[in-house]
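DM from R.C. (forwarded with permission)

"hey, sorry to bug you on a friday — could you get me a structure for this? deadline for the figure draft is monday and I only need the backbone to look sensible"
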Amino acid sequence: MTEVLLLVLVIAIIGLAAVMFVRLKPNDEGRVDLVDQRMTEMLNNQQALVGKVDTVSTQQIESSRRMTESFGKSQQQLGTALSDRLAKVEAEMNKNLASSSKETAESLAGLKERLETIDKAQDNIKALSEQVVSLQHVLDDNPARGAFGEIQLADIVESMLPSFAYQMQAPLANGKQVDCLIKLPDPPGPISVDAKFPLKAYQEMLEAENQTDRNKAGKQLAADTKKHIKDIADRYVAQSIDGVTSTAENALMFIPSEAVYGELHAHHPSVIAESHKRKVYLVSPTTLMATLTTVRAILRDVEMRKQASVIQEEVSTLLKDIGRLDERVLNLDRHFDQAARDIEQIKTSSTKIVNRGDRIESLDLGDHDTTPSIEPGSDHQDDFGLDA
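My reply, with the result:
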């Protein structure tokens, strides 16, 4: 581009000089010479410029070639670096994709198991909700509520008392049948336990939308409970069993709901007063278990008292055996004393026999004028005698 501009500039200068030469007048010979001289200088300058342009063009071409080669090498190196980088990125990406695929598969497997567990839990919850609804429908009916209370009462009594201490559905002489009869000795005698569940009025009280309805339902709950207390007192308190034994002068009314029991004790003192008056005491599952714990301790004490006579008889027999043993030990001790005295006498006789043998062995039986004589009554006579 630079060479073209220089060439155009030179041509413009030459054209300008030619125009100036044409315009010169004939009498301007000096000026013509001057113009020729200037033209010659311009041509020389043009040639010099053309030479410089050629030199510059050659240098620019060489520089452009070098730049092209350098750019080609750089582009090649850049392409190689990019290829290596892309290969590494691709390998890393493949590795990450493989790892991610494995983790995703494991996560999906775990998620599938959790979903199956959740499905099972939902099925269980659904079944449980159906059972709760069924139980709610069961408790809507009075006989069904009574059966529910009787079953809960039986479970508690069976878990707390031995089988001989109670009787479920025990018949009485008045033709009535009590839910549970706890067999205690006199006093107080067998205690009747009857299950009652005044649930309807309690539910109406909870579902009441205003205080008036709530008070009305509370009064109905108190009235129903008092009626149950009266029925238990008339049927099961101080009633004969088999024409001989009578039930105790008090009874228990089992309420299989801690909430109803708490409501009666907290907000209906007239019901509690009525129960104390008729000696029919209200118990919930918790208080019944505490009561039966006390009953079990009483039964244990009664059984110990029943066995007291047997224990006394056995102790008396044991004392007689000890007396006979003492007599036999004394007899044996006397025999040991006699044996000890006999042994001492035997030892004395043995000692005397040995001494006499020694004396006999020491006698001189040779021919001597004098012979030792043994005088009657001497110690030697005593030694040879058998009086010992």
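R.C.: lifesaver. Residues 1-67 form one domain.
me: no worries. The longest helix spans residues 29-139.
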